Amino acid sequence: MRKRLISALAIALILTVAGCGGNSSKEASTKNDKGEAKQVFHVAIGSELPTADVSLAMDNVSVEAMSQFMEGLYEFDVNGDVQPALAAEIAKPSKDGLVYTIKLKEDGKWSNGDNVTAKDFVYSWQRTVDPATAAEQSYYFEGIKNYEAIAKGELPPTELGIKAVNDYELELTLEHPIPYINSLIAIPAFFPMNQKFVEEQGDKFGTSSETTLSNGPFTLEDWNGTSMSWKYVKNDQYREKDEVDLDEVQMQVIKETSSGINLFKDGQLDDLVISGEFVAHEQDNEALQIREMPGTYYISYNTKKEILSNLKAREAISLVIDSDQIAKNVLNDGSKKATGFVPFGFTNADNGEDFAEDAGELTKTDVKKAKALWAEAKEELGIDGGDITILASDIDSSKKVSEYLQGVISENLDGLTVKVNAVPFKNRLERSRSGDFDIVLGGWTPVYADPIDFLNLFKSSNSNNFGKWSDPEYDKLLKEASEDYALDNQKRWDSMLKAQELLFTEHPVTPLYQISEVHLVNPKVKGLELGPLGSPYYKKVSITE
After folding, report:
1. Which neighbouring-strand residues pair with 291?
2. Is residue 120 helix, strand or coil?
3. Domains in the chain: ranges and CATH
4. Is the pLDDT reported for residue 292 higher than 80?
5. Cβ–Cβ < 8 Å for 47, 426
6. For strand 509-521 and strand 271-274, is the pairing parallel, antiparallel, or unpaired?
7. Please, which pLDDT band fits residue 290 given cuts at 50, 70 and 90?
8. What would the pLDDT profile of 521-545 be if each residue is shown by its tens digit?
9. 383-419: string of b/e by CB count within 10 Å (b at 16+)?
10. How buried is 286 (Cβ within 10 angstroms: 0-12 exposed, 13-18 middle, 19+ buried)?
11. pLDDT tens-digit readout, 59-89
């Protein structure tokens, strides 16, 4: 049975703010093709766009971009519930819970004028699970018929449990019931691709706006793969184009919050995420809005590195970190203390209890114990000390957290020298994937409404398990939650609780805080909905005079 987000998070923010803020967008005085004032929405984003390839879009920046210029079967509404997008309706399972027949709307179009058909979904899904594609998000297809054999190279991708019955009807077959399947296939990993276009572009597909094809409300423009700015332009082929008010969305990478605030107040930005002391400075600004998210920011340890292969060393580092201090003093942006790896926001369908509350307070700070453990770790490793480097993105919040970690670790663990390497977001992703790090800072917001979305990150075979930690008991517990107890909600719940407890016994990860986003939004912006799942859909936004 599907978990539901707690009501505090399920009530999304509809940002129709009034008060302080910038003037209307500079292009508002220009005209569109209809002779009307051009609707342009200016958005600041913290990092460059890594990819526009559906199969490879794993990070938050790419996922948010996909949500603007692509469209899938389903999408998330303001409450985090699934609703039809290209699907004609929400599909119901067969009696055994294994087969879904999904009917498509017949008015879907690619930006080149081609029809969007069932074959586009079949091709996309098969391409993503193909080992040759090396898609990190292929694990989302676990539980779909034949996925495991395909991932191992034992069957071709064409044997995946998805087929086009006709141009506008899909048949999805599962290995076992998946309680959250409809929520899962709403994410960009399950969006369609136009086979002819993709194969024409070859290795260049999704590396620039010219090699990207859209089927959503906007097209991607002015992006060369490394651009610090790009835009989404209204797609005249989109099936609901008459319901899209914006003519353009201008995206600009802003890594320094102070620069972003200046641009916002000068009327050059309409939406800006701020953090740290800037939140306190803007407390009286009515444009300030807080989005509470069921997400966790954390550090992962590379367990293949000598020092961090030692459990006592990892636990010692974990015990000198104070999550409450990070949230309140380092960030001061509405973020909250992390009590576990799975954040608050997921409730048990049987009794309404929150997973994080059920789990209890698992994060601990105990400097005295940390020092003793570190002394034992050094003895076991045969060292007097050592060097480790924290890999982080080069945005304000990440740099602040990194500096805090550098301080508390080096000050409390004698002989351990800590360096910080802050790099562009795309570089951080590449180095994480290749295992080129000691400790890496990362964050995770829910892809679908189930705690296992977080817990899967440390499964032995998961492509996002960058630290290569592996534990047979942990994998067994996740198998129980995913397969063995798929239709027994309470047993699933108990297995997931035990799995999280194991994370705090073996310490492959240390949660740092539960994420919140603080926005400054131009009061002339209407309809910007920030729900607990998915990305905001700019197709709903308009700008008033």
Report:
1. 517
2. helix
3. 47-253 (3.90.76.10), 292-517 (3.10.105.10)
4. no
5. yes
6. antiparallel
7. confident
8. 999 999 998 777 778 899 999 999 7
9. eeebebbbbbbbbbbbbbbbebbbebbbebbeebebe
10. middle
11. 889 999 999 999 999 999 888 889 999 999 9
Strands (E), 185-287: 218-221, 229-234, 248-253, 271-274
Structure tokens at 124: 């996309």
User: In whole angstroms, what is the distance from residue 238 CA to residue 539 CA?
Assistant: 11
Is the torsion defined by CA of 303, 305, 309, 314 positive or negative?
A: negative
**Which runs of consecutive H residues, i.e. helices, occur in 20-137?**
60-69, 118-129
| Per-residue model confidence (pLDDT) at position 34 | 64
Contact 208, 224 (CB under 8 A): yes
Distances (CA, A) of 184 to 176, 188, 261, 411: 15, 9, 36, 43
Alpha-helical segments (H) within 303-424:
311-319, 323-325, 355-359, 367-381, 396-412
Q: Are the C-beta atoms of residues 390 and 299 closer than 8 Å to each other?
A: yes
∠ Cα 336 340 342 (to 5°): 90
pLDDT at 13 over 90: no
Instruction: Give, to the nearest 10 degrees, the angle between helix 472-479 and helix 489-506.
Output: 160
DSSP 8-state class, residue 481: I
pLDDT digits (tens, 9 = 90+) for 396-435: 889 999 999 999 999 999 999 999 999 998 899 899 999 9
Count of CB atoms situated within 10 Å of the CB of 461:
12
For residue 79 the two structure tokens come to 């409450």
Q: What is the pLDDT, as a whole number, of residue 385? A: 93
- Its pTM stands at 0.81
Residue 302 contacts residue 438 (beta carbons within 8 Å): yes
Structural element, H or E, at residue 258:
helix 257-265
Whether residue 510 contacts residue 318, with contact meaning beta carbons closer than 8 Å, is answered with yes
**276: alpha, beta or left, given left = phi > 0 and alpha = psi -120 to 50?**
left
Q: Which of 56, 76, 83, 172 is nearest to 121 (CA)?
A: 172
Average pLDDT over residues 325-335: 87
User: Distance between CA atoms of 343 and 532, rounded to whole angstroms?
Assistant: 12
Interatomic CA distance for residues 303 and 289, integer angstroms: 39
Which residue type is seen at 215?
Answer: N
CA gap 140, 441 in Å, rounded: 23
**8 Å CB contact between 203 and 99:** no
With beta carbons less than 8 A apart as the criterion, state whether 442 and 298 touch. Answer: yes
Would you state the pLDDT for residue 451?
93
